[in-house]
Amino acid sequence: MIVFILVPGLYAAVEQADDSALRGRPVIVGGDPAKRGTVTGVSREARARGVEEGMETRAALELCPDASLRRTRLKRYRELVAELRELLRGESERVEELGLEGTFLELPPGADALARAAELCVRVQAELGVAAVAGIAPTRFVAVLAARNAGPGGIRRVDAAEVETFLGRFPVGEIWGLGPATARKLAEHGVHSIAELRALDAARLAELTGPRSAALLEYARGADRSRLAPKPRARTLSQEQTLDEPSADLRTLADAIEALAERLASALARERRAARAVTLVVSYLDGTRASRTQTLDAPTSEARELSDAGVALLARTQAGARAVRRLRLALAGLARAGTSAEGRQLRLF
Questions:
Q1: Confidence of residue 233 (pLDDT cuts 50, 70, 90)
Q2: Are 51 and 42 in contact, with CB atoms under 8 Å apart?
Q3: Average pLDDT over residues 82-93
Q4: Dihedral of the CA atoms 109, 113, 115, 116 (nearest 10)?
Q5: What domains are there in the chain, each with its CATH number?
Q6: How many CB atoms lie within 10 A of CB 47?
């Protein structure tokens, strides 16, 4: 079974998590209403008043005048999603992303999908402060629809025997790859629901929907068996900075390395990983480069340790005698934080 974990109204959910005064209140995330900005995120409370993503912010505020308006903060939302996906990778390495809001994971054979999904939703709420729902189904498409229609319990499981009944009530526009123009064409011929699409014979469906008719029918039957395509974790992390002015001052260069180390430490913390090797690449004013690497005694995610390693590597270059215009700090040997050199997971309890 495939589990799909979804954070409904992600942008607004993060705003409510970050500001306790917003919890339980309508929140709209979007652009400046005076500049015809559009809505990018909606809380459950604002959605109940008719506000939807994509509408103009001004119109949204007319529907929900007491809503709190927040500007879009993509960097913050991506940080939280990175933390969420690392949490999920603790359950399964087979994880696939679907935009920012949703994530698929494939559980090991024999796992109790319902219990695991419930536990994950509780952990997401407890550790990250946002509410998650889950859909469990034999296919990715059905799992997404199950999550989006999870109901008050927050989890919806659709077994293989229930798939066709479950899908039948949805409008044809829910089928992946079936666009608005095709949905309108089908509606003109009396086909509105997925059940009605399934009832068409293959020749008639091909006439109305074109060469993708077979794939659309597979989705309508819940028979799409495409496997997850997990995105492999990055094997390295790096940050670089081009100095405002080329410099041979070692203190200036050390400050820049410290800033790079702090950014890398934040990335490691989000992904719950640690690094075993640090590389510093120095680009001199004349365009030549020098690269130095140090293997640490133990994996670390601490900014100070990464910075100290970077500064030590700087001393092994000609910086100070030659002007430097760019610095790059890279980490390798990435492992899950709390893992020993032998690869054994160290548990807190």
A1: low
A2: yes
A3: 80
A4: 80
A5: 10-74 (3.40.1170.60), 163-221 (1.10.150.20), 237-336 (3.30.1490.100)
A6: 17
